[in-house]
Each structure stands twice: as structure tokens, then as C-alpha cells.
Amino acid sequence: MKTIKEINEKIKRGDVVVVTAEEVIDLVEKKGVRKVAEEVDVVTTATFGPMCSSGAYFNIGHSKPRIKLGGGVCKLNDVPCYTGFAAVDIYLGATAIPDDDPRNKVYPGEFKYGGGHVIHELVAGKPVYLEAIAYGTDCYPRKKLATAINLKDINEAVLFNIRNCYQNYNVAVNLSDKMIYTYMGALKPNMGNANYCSAGQLSPLLKDPYYKSIGIGTKIFLGGGVGFVAWHGTQHNPSIPRKDNGVPKVPGGTLAVIGDLKQMKAKWLAGESMYGYGATLAVGIGVPIPVLNEETIKSAAVKDEEIWTQVINYAHDYPQCIAGSLAEVNYSQLKSGKITVQGKEVPTGNLSSYSKAREITEILKSWIVKGDFLLSESVAPLPSVESGYSFKPLKESPSIS
Amino acid sequence: MISRKIVLHFPQVLVDQPIVYKLVKDFDLQFNILKASVTSGQEGLMVLELTGKKENFDKGIEYLKSCAVLIEPLSKDVIRDEEKCTHCGVCVPVCPVDALVVEPQTRKIIFENKKCIACELCVKICPPRAMEVRF
Ligand code: SF4
Ligand code: SF4
């Protein structure tokens, strides 16, 4: 049994033992759980993939004369921001797109540029053009603003993603006879391809299935900088079916994360375009798991063949919100390049970059080993199985009564 | 020696003929079939990389034309912006000729331009739009 405090002392002394979520698998196979739990102090996990519920808020500073953007319109490189705050606070969502983007009017739309791309350019140090219209008040008389802004000159720039890091995800296929374009990528007719989106055995919440170590306040690698788990993510769903090893068989928990955008790197925040679907942001996240006991190591050493997920028909069942799985497959099968669904061999593609996730586990490891990154105690746990917390569908009612 | 990628359209009557074989035997050309298919109207389509001496190459092309094969150069080239590629791999099952494959050790996505037939399927579906068409 170790404590986070003791591990931090080791980090400061420079004798901490850190392994990646991949390395711990081999280590446990060679030495067994007990030995590894004694020897290893931290396991680094990571993921890098498109995460649509991402975005950033900014305080752009007051102009002279003052302008109140709240209640007005504000765009960054033509992409609309949310202005429903005070005078100069705005929030830009990853999927926001310019008003004149044709969207899916000419189907399938290209969605070449959106909020995710603006965030990427800002982080890359490029100037971005801000245009705003306000209604004007006695204390904020200005009604128009048009100026280039850049990340280093504005006040706060904070990445605040309300749902990232899904604990497991669906495999998407198309059983119809037409091509379909989804957030899981382009799906060829008659199960021409099967797309998945997870780093599997590297992915943070798959290595801490009951959220015993990852909680509110956990310090993380976020977009190349340092961030924190702010809350459980939206749609967090601990009460889902799990395998004996505790790993969910369907999408489970999620994280809301926050961090200073000014410290982040363009390489780890990439603007992306899902053909026929929309714009988004690919986010790189790394989470350290302190090894407090044998159970931590047992969970952290779960490997691809022990992580199972469901194959879902995105031509019908997913859009109609109908439950049902066509097959259960594991990440080792998915990574082999093909899976078998209803007797048919289907080639697989990943939306989430395994090689980038691996790179993040290595970077985080080096930060900890060098003493640049201390672990934080979580201040409150994420809702887990015993909480009964779950994710509900919308109850529609035609009127307010 | 020259090497060119060309697209051949065969009329129905020629689909069963050993035309490509003749290119090798009579004109000493090497070929690499990048793609071959028979379309619904029973017309044949083939994308070839043809390599050989310039004069033999020209004679081979003349021969194909005399057989009523329609020839187009594969003038487009698809390149990958290495800065933009995140090595996700969603393009892998989409590529019809295995020009995009996962390297099993590094899990990086290898793009083999030599195999590419510039079908552009990957260009649109690549999330960071790393694949670009050059004319
Ligand atoms: S889809 Fe694009 S980003 Fe992903 S591996 Fe292929 S080329 Fe690279
Ligand atoms: S354009 Fe893309 S999908 Fe088509 S052959 Fe070339 S690499 Fe493959």
C-alpha cells in the first residue's frame, strides 16, 4: 500500500518508477501483480481522438470604448461563439461552423472549418479575426468590433471540454445499401468497413474501470499542457454492463476536463472535419494512475483482448435509438484489421490514434520521471456503480404544463 | 527507362483478351496492376504502372490504342501532409488498393504513394484533411 504523498516524495527525490499502460501489461505477465504493485509507482494512460464536446472560453480584454458582447454576436474567423456572459467573455465550441457553411445542404457536406480549427490555429500562435456586434449600453457604448486577436495577448484562454475520454466506445457499421456519413466516419454499405474509436488498452478510464484513482481534481496531460479533471463528463454512465474484470462492454464513464490553453501545443489539439457530419477537435489526454495497491495494477494491466465492445448498425439502430448489438468484439480483434460480424469479415479503421496515445503515455512518463509533474489527490470521486447514477434518454413533452 | 501510371478502359469485347500479356511479351514492358475491375456495363477498367524503354513504351501505347482501348494518364497525384496526419487509421479500410496500411509495431499509418490510384476516397474522409490531391 502506497499513498499519493509518498509517490510525490519519490518524484521529488527522483527515484519514482513510472511505466506506460502498455509496459505494465508485459511487466505483470513477467513478474505477476504483487511484484509489479510493489515496484511500480505510476502507470501512464492516454488517448488522442476526436471529442466533439470540447471548446474553450476566452476573456478578450476590454476595448476602448467598452463593448458588451453579452447578448450580441461574436465570431472568430467567421465561426460563431457563445456570448451569453458578461462583457468580454466568450465560449467557442469545437463543432461551431460559420453561418454561411452550406452544412449538409449539398450532401455530404465537407465541414472544412469550425471551432476546432480556430482553437488549433490559436494554439499554433496564429492570429484569428474577431468580429462582434453588440446592442450598446450607457456603460458599454460600443456596438461594433473588428480586430485580430492572438492567444498571448488576450487574458484567459481556457480549454474546457464537458465530455472527453469516453470509457469504451461503439464500433460502427452500416447495414444499409447506401454509403452513410457519421461522426464515426464514412461507413460503406453492407458492412464495407467497421470504425471504432478508442485507444483500448492505453485509454485512461479503461484502466481504472471503477474510477478508484481518477476523480475530480486529478491532474492530467491536456492538449500538450497541464490540465485537471473538472467533473464527471456529460453522459457519464457508470451503471452499464461490465465484464468480470470491471471493464464496461459499452460506452461508460466520461470526463469533463479543464486546462490553460496558452500552455497547450497545436500537435495535441487538431481541428478535424467529419465528412457529412461536422467539424470537431481531436484532443490528446494523458492521465497518470498512482499505484496504491495490487488492485490498481490488476486493472491497469488489462489488455486489448480483455476489453470488449459492441458493433452497432449506424444506418438504423443508432439513429433510431434502438438498443441492440450485432456482435461483441475485443480491441485485439479490432486492431488486427478485421472483425467478423454475422459471418462476414469486415475491415476495421480507428478514429482514435493509437500511436499518438502511446506518444502521450511516454511524454507524461518523462514529465513525472524528471520531476516536472507531481500527482494530485482527487478532491471528490466520480460517480461509480454504487451511486446508481445513469444516463437517461430525453422525455419529450409537447407543452409546458 | 520511363515509368507512368495509366488508366485503361476496355470495351466489352476485349475484357477476356490477353492484352497486358502482349505488352510484356512484344514490347518488353514491365507492369504493375494497381487496380482492375469490370464495371456494370461489362466494360473493363485497369490502372497500370507501366515501366520500360521510352520507345517500347510508346509502341505499347500505340498497340493498346489500335485495340480500341481508351487510355488516360493518371494525372492526379495524392500526397499526404505529414504534419497534419494524426495516424488514426480511419482511411485504412477505405483505400481500395492497400496504399494506406497500419504498421503493426508503431501503429503508424504508412502511405505508399506508388500503389495509390488517386481515387480520392481517403481525401474527403480523412478527419484532419491530411490527404491532398495534386494535379
Ligand atoms: S485518415 Fe488521415 S489522419 Fe488518419 S491516418 Fe489516414 S491520412 Fe492520417
Ligand atoms: S487516393 Fe487514397 S484511398 Fe485512393 S488509392 Fe490513393 S491512398 Fe488509397
Account of the protein in words:
The complex is a heterodimer of chains A (401) and B (135). With 401 residues, chain A is an alpha+beta fold. Chain A has helices at 4-13, 23-31, 33-39, 115-123, 294-300, 331-335, 354-370, and strands at 18-20, 42-50, 55-59, 73-76, 79-80, 89-93, 128-133, 144-149, 157-164, 171-173, 180-182, 185-187, 194-196, 215-216, 219-222, 225-232, 255-260, 269-274, 278-290, 308-313, 327-330, 338-341, 344-350, 380-381. In chain A, strands 1, 2, 3, 6, 9, 15, 16, 17, 18 and 19 form a 10-stranded mixed β-sheet that branches. Chain A has a 4-stranded antiparallel β-sheet with strand order 5-4-7-8. A 3-stranded mixed β-sheet of chain A has the order 10-20-21. In chain A, 48% of the residues are buried. Chain B is α+β, with helices and mostly antiparallel strands and 135 residues long. Chain B contains 3 helices and 8 strands. In chain B, strands 2-3-1-4 form a 4-stranded antiparallel β-sheet. A two-stranded antiparallel ribbon of chain B has the order 5-8. In chain B, strands 6-7 form a two-stranded antiparallel ribbon. Classes of the chains: A alpha+beta (401), B alpha+beta (135). Chain A binds chain B through residues 48-50, 110, 112, 185-186, 188, 192-195, 270-275, 280, 282, 335, 337, 346-356, 358, and chain B through 84, 86-94, 102, 106-108, 124-125, 127-129. Bound molecules: iron/sulfur cluster (SF4) (2 copies). The site of one iron/sulfur cluster has 14 residues of chain B, from loops.
CATH homologous superfamily caption of the largest domain in chain B: ACT domain
In CATH's first tier, which class of the largest domain in chain B applies?
Alpha Beta
Q: Round the Cα radius of gyration of chain A to an integer and report it.
A: 22 Å
Quantity of strands of chain A, as a count: 24
Find the structural class of chain B using helix and strand composition.
alpha+beta
Largest interface: A-B, 34 and 19 residues
